Structure formats: C-alpha cells, structure tokens
What does this fold into?
Amino acid sequence: MLRDALYEKRCLMVCGGGGVGKTTVSASLAVAAAHVRKRVLVVTIDPAKRLLQAFGFNDALLQEGGAPLALSGDVLTRLGLPESAGLSVAILNPKWVLDRIVAQSLTPGQGSKLKDTVIYREMGQMVHGLQEYTAYEWVTRMLTDDEYDLIVLDTPPAFHAKEFFNAPAKIRNLMESRVFQIFIPSGHSWIPSLLTFGWVEKLLGERIYRESKMFFETFTGLRDRIIARCGKLAEFFSQREVAVVVVGTPESTPVLELEGLIGFLEEKRIPVEAVVMNQVERASEFTPEILGSGISEELLAKLSELKLHQDAKADRAFESIQRVKSRHPGREWVEFPMVYSLDGFEILKQNAAQMR
Amino acid sequence: MDNVTSNSIIHDLKRINLISGKGGVGRTTLSAAMARASAASGKKTLLLEIEDDSGWDSALARSFGRKHFQIEPELLEKNLYGISLSATVGQERFLQSFLKLKSLTDLVMGNQGVKWFLEGAPAFKEMGVFFHLLLQMRADFDTLILDLPATGHFVGLARLPDLLLKMIPFGPIADRLREGQKFLYDRASSAVWIVTLPQPLPVSEAIELRTVLQKESLPFGGFILNRAPFNPFTEQEEELLEGLSRKSAAGKLLVDLERIRRFRDSRNRLKESMGSSTGTGSIWIAPESLRPDQELLMSRKLKRVEC
It folds into this structure.
C-alpha cells in the first residue's frame, strides 16, 4: 500500500514518461508523507526547476552545491501541514555531484587537470546516463547520512522512463569499455590500439586526441569507484526501504508508455508500490440552475455543449483507466484529477489528502 | 476575439523544420500531422526522428502503422518519407566519405579499437546522428520535419557543432559540422518550432526555450499552442460568465470555464513574449480533439493568431 510506504519506506522513486506530472506527484507524495514523518526531502533533477516553483520558491533560492531548502511555516500552512512539519526540497545538479566525487577520489592536481578538459566540462550533456547515475549516488549518500526519514526522488525526464533504471549499467559499460585502454598506454603494449591511435589522430586532429587522452588518463582514477557503485545499484531497488511509484495519464500514448514501463519493471523484478494515474479528467459539475435566471437560451445551450464536451473527456479517461486496470489486476491505483481552478498549493494539499 | 486567420501552417514551414517541446505536449502527433499536410500539398516531405536504443516502438512510426522507421528514407504515403537517424549509420557514412573506399571503411569500422572508441567516447554518438541528418539535408527533399527527442532541451543537438568545433577546429569532421551549421542557422531555410500547452508552466518553458534559441542565433519559426480547449463563447459571453463565476456558488462549479481562461492567459503571454522583440515567428493554435486519430488530420485546423 502506498499509504504504508509513506510511513515505512526511506526512499520513493517516482518515475514515468514525459509530461505526466511526475513533479506534481512527487511533491504531493512528499506533502502526504510530511504529515506522518518528521524529516521529508523531495529532490528533482529537472533543470526547469518545476519543483521549486511548486513550493513557491523562486530560482534565486537555488543554492550552490544543491543544499536542501526547508519550507517556511507559511508555505507549510498553505499546504495543510502543521508549522512544525519538516519538509525540504532540493534540486540536484549532476555537475556538483561529479565535482564532489572528483574531489574525493583524485589528487587536487589530477582533479584540476580533469576539470580543464572540454569533455569533463560538457560531460552532463555528452555522457548518457550520467544524470541518472549522479542521482543514485546522491540519494545513496543522503540515506547513509541519515538526515532525512524519507527521500522522494522525482526522476529526470528521459526519452523513455526505463532509461533511468538502465543508467547504472550504461555507465558501467562505458567505464569498463576498452576506450580507456586506447588512450591509456598500459604495461603490455597492445598492437590494435596503436593502430587506432593513428586513425583517431588523423581523423580528429591533434587537439581532441590530446583532450581525450588527458580526460581518460585522469578519469581512470574514478573508474573503479564508479564501477563498484554501479554494481551495488543493481541491488538498490531490491532493498526493502526503497519503493518505486509509477506515474501515467489516461491518454493513449502515455498509457502505452506506462504499460511498457510496468512490464519492464516486472521483467527486472523491481517491485512497483503503486501506480498513480495523474491528470484524470472529471465530469462537469455544472447545472443550469446554479446560474439562476437572466441567462439567455443561447448561452445556456452553449454552456450545455461545453458540459457535454467535458463529460465526454471524463468518460474517455474512465474507460481508459478501466482497460489498463483490467490488464494489470492486483495493483494499487491512485487517481489524481486534472485540475485547472486551483493554485499549486491547493492541488498538492488535495492530492496529499487523498493519499492519507 | 482575436484576429484569427486560417491559412495553413504549411505555408510557414521552412525547408528544414525542427519540432521541439517537452514530453507530453503532443510534439510527435503534431510532427506527423504537419508532415502529412506538407506531403498533401505536393511537397516531397521527409519526416525524421532520432533513433532510440531503448528498443521500444517509436510513437511516430506507430502513427504510420510501423514499429520503427528505417535508416534510409522509406515511402510512407504519397510524397511522404520517414527515416530514423542513427548514430552508427552516420559514423559509418562519414568514414566512407572520408576514406572513399568501402572496403577501407569496413576495415576501419571493423577494427575493435575504433568500435570501442565510437561507442564509448562522449559525443560521438550525437555526431553520428548529426552526420546522418546532414546527409538528409543535402538530399532532394522539399521539406524536412524532425521530431526532436523530449530529453531536456533540444538545444543539445543544435549546440553540438559548436561544442565539437571547440575540440576539433580543423579537418574533415569540422568541415561537415560547419556545413550542417550552415543549414541549421540559415533563416531562409530552417526554423525551430516550439510546441507547448495552454498551462502556466509549459508556457514559461516555451518562452524560456525561445530565449535560448535567440542566444544561439537559431531561427525561430513559431509557437504551436496545442490542445486549445473547446470554446463556443463570444468575448462578451466570456466576460458575462466570468462575472457570474466570481460571485455565488457558480464560481466553484464553472470549472470548465477555467480551462478557457487559462488558454487565453497562455496565448496572451506568448503574444507578449513575441511583442518585445523584432524577430519573425508567429503563434499557431491547435485544438484539442476527442480522439487521437483525429489529431492526425488536425494540421488543417491549425489557426494563426495575428500578433
């Protein structure tokens, strides 16, 4: 049960396709948890900083180093939480995490050499899976430090949600790949790599060759640590204190993606705590009587037409959800309505109330 | 009411069109619709997407009854071709153009060291995709429509040449990168379209993305405000209803009207953001439709907002 998870787990990973509202769901879960847990942290890698906006922070409050920000008493009250509640929010910048790993694993000299390469500076963009990897690294550290009872992780937007789970393997493959050996002259001279030197240098020019060599030489110092970490991450999801929450919407393409993700997690034997259906359209609550008299027939007709439109959307959403549910019996489903008329705090408050 | 003209968006399309937008805004559906409309107008059109190694079916290909597009342009419908841009194919084609001989290319690509390098070294995948795109831009299509991946900001692909040119300022790769840049940065032949939804955050992100485009000097085609709500009311009626919904219990129940108000706010914010600069570009409105298959025909219903 999701409700139990809010009481018991130490980490909730919220994942799903793009545009389904992972951030809103993460924030709602965190608010619900803050009613029953003392120290709750919700963290995102979203560069658009949606999470901060959801809690009323402006970008200027984004702190160097990604230190969590505690919500003020005023905001807690608006979220329906007691002023004594402990809810914090953090934005994770992969660069900060990486810099920290560098500082811990390399000598200052090596570190600055590495940081000077263009490859390192642009690494977040250039290396697939790096964002995800740093999220794991960060969450693991936070769990070990034990400053929070529960961490809700809003996973990064990706091509497909399952990339998040494949990231450690991807990074590990890169770290173990022979590309390092091409650039790093090892004790046993190795003829194919010498052949490659020539080609790479001729094709790419001397500069990138030099840059790459520098990068791979210094980065080698981090490899063992990253490879070991990636190995451990495979077990991360099987820990009893970690739970995965999958988010989707009833629309046709997101539903396909949602089912694909559930299937993938089943295959990987990663337990799914609950599925949240977000942005569910509700039937119109409008009736002409509310408006009283003084409304023209024409306008009433138009209002009825608008109502029909909304009801048709609600029917479609209902049918879509019924179909998905019937294909996945035995799962816990939570529905969050599509809301237009409320401010952000009110949405989080109502979503949270529904889960408690 | 806004001054809305119904001339088709396809008259505004440039030769090369990059369709961008965050996940869930309907970017892929709109790309397919625009490609169909372009092909129907008699233009030889190529619809492109970037391969995705997750092994899942492509949503774009699915709207043409396929699981995936091929690595060569493949005829989908009359005048309309589809292709999936692939890193490996791009790398291979590039090497071949450089080494001339196919047998020599095979030898190099077959070299284990080279394979490891191309698979593992950062940015080389993107470079392969970029070269595969370049080949399509060189080909004889009248219109190209590229459905960009939702991951973060698309600027990655557009920035790639700049980034790589820092490391590889000379030589055959630099030449190709510059050639690609020429295509993409030319206002006469390229445009980036930003798809967004009539909600506050997506609109903020769209406006932010346009600022990035301007900074990078990439040509901007316009905003496409997708899923505009059904709105049967005149402006006077809207005002009347707004007044009614502010007082009494009606306010709570007229939730449906809220959607219309949000749409109006979104459109006005986009308009404002465009007004402050002299650049070209326009706002197009795409209506929400009840069934996804109708959405595919939607491009004919796209309306332009006069700014």
Summary: The CA atoms of residues 76 and 82 of chain B lie 6 Å apart. The radius of gyration of chain B is 22 Å. Chain B has a mean pLDDT of 81. Chain B touches chain A through 67 residues (CB under 8 Å).
